[in-house]
User: Fold Nitronate monooxygenase domain-containing protein from Chaetomium fimeti.
Amino acid sequence: MGLHKTVPGHRRWASVLLFGNRQPALSTHPIAESPSSWNRRKGSTRSPQPHGPHLLRRTFSPSHPPHSSLITAKSFSDNRAKTIESGLIMEHKLQSVSLRDQLTAPYPWTATPLIVGAPMRVMSGPELAVAVSCAGGFGFIGPGEKPESTAADLETAKALIASSGIPQHGTTLPAGVGFQIWNGNLDISASTVSQYRPAAVWLFAPRHGQTDVDVWTQRLRGESPETKIWLQIGTLREALDAVRSASPPDVLVVQGAEASGHGRASDGIGFVTLLPEIADATRESGIPLIAAGGVADGRGVVAALGVGAAGVAMGTRFLASQEARIKKGYQDEVVRATDGGANTVRTHLYNHLRGTFGWPEQFSPRTIVNRSWAEKQAGTAFEDIKKRHDDAVSQGDSAWGPDGWTATYAGANVGLISGVASARDIVTGTRREAVNIIQTLSGL
Assistant:
C-alpha cells in the first residue's frame, strides 16, 4: 500500500484500512461539540483522552507471513520498520475492509464508520430511526407494543423520509425495523415488510434458535427480496448455526453482555472477547459483523472496529436522545445512573412486574436497579413488590430513579451518558470522535 496523504499528517493506508474505499463523511455533519464533552463520566472535570490499543499497518513478507504474530509498523518520522511482538495491537485485514464496503453498499445514505440505532421495543420510533439515517447512520424502528404498531410507524417513517432528501437504494426505505421472533406474528410482519420494504429487518429472540430464524428469513425474503436480513446473536454457537443454515443472514449483530436489550441470560460475554472469536470462526462466510452492547461514544466504535466489526449498534445511548419515544423519568434515570457494573443487572423481574411472561429462558434484559430489585434481594414476596410497582406507575415520572419501582431497561454503559442530545449530534459526534482517535493512533 502506498503512503500518499489524504489529509496533512495522516497516511492514506490508515484511512483505507479503517474505512475501505469510502472515506469518512464528516464535513456534511458538523456539530458544536464532541461526545468527549457531553458524554464524559459524571463528576469528571476534564475530558477523557483517547486511549486504547495501537492501530498499526501490517506488512507481510516471506519471513513474516500474514498469520505471524510479528507485526511491522511504519514510523511517521523516518519510515523505519520496527518489529512488535507484544502489546495491544489491532489487526485490520484487507478482508475487514471489504466487509465494511459490503455492509454499507446497499445503504447509500450511510457514512463510515457505520453507526446503527438499535430497534429498542417502543423507544425506537420512526422519528428516532429517521433522524439516525439522516445523520449518515442506519436507524431501526423497534417492534412496538403489538405487531400492528410496526405498520403505523413505517408509514410515519415513510412520510418523514420523503421530506428528508435521503438517497435511496432501489425500492427500499432507508430505515430498518426489528422483529422479536418468539412472540411475533410472522403473517403481520411479512405483510408489513412487503408493503413498506425497509432496507433491513433485524431479527432477534427466537424460542427455538435457528429453526425459527430460518422460517422468518425465508418468508421475509420472499416478500421483499431487496430487504436485508440482520440477525442478533450472543454466542459463538448461535453465529455458527446462522452461517451454516440454509438461509444465512446478510449481517450478524454480535451482542455483548453489556447490552440493555434482551440478551443471553447466563452465557453472554463482552463483545471485545466474543466478536473476534466469531470473526475468526465465520470469516469464510463473508458475512459482516456489527458490534452491539456497551458502545456509547467514539472510543467504543474504535474498539469494535479493532476486533473485527464492520460497524456498531447503539441502543442505550439513543435512549438519551431528543427523538426517543421515552418517558422523561426514564430518560432522566439513564442520564443520572453511573457504574453500570454495580447498578445494572440482568433479570426477568421487571418483565414480570409489567405483566410480560413467556420469554425464552435463554434471554433476559438488563435494567438499572431500584427499589423493586432491592426488595426482591431482601426476600420480599413478588405479590407485594408487584403492588408497590403498580402504585408507582400511576405516579408518573417518580416511578423511575433509585427509589422508584419501574423497569428502567438500559445497558452497562450508562456511566458514559451524561446528557440528552439530538440523534444527529449523537451520530455525527460519535463518528467524529472515532475518526479523530483513529487518526491519532495511526501515527504511533
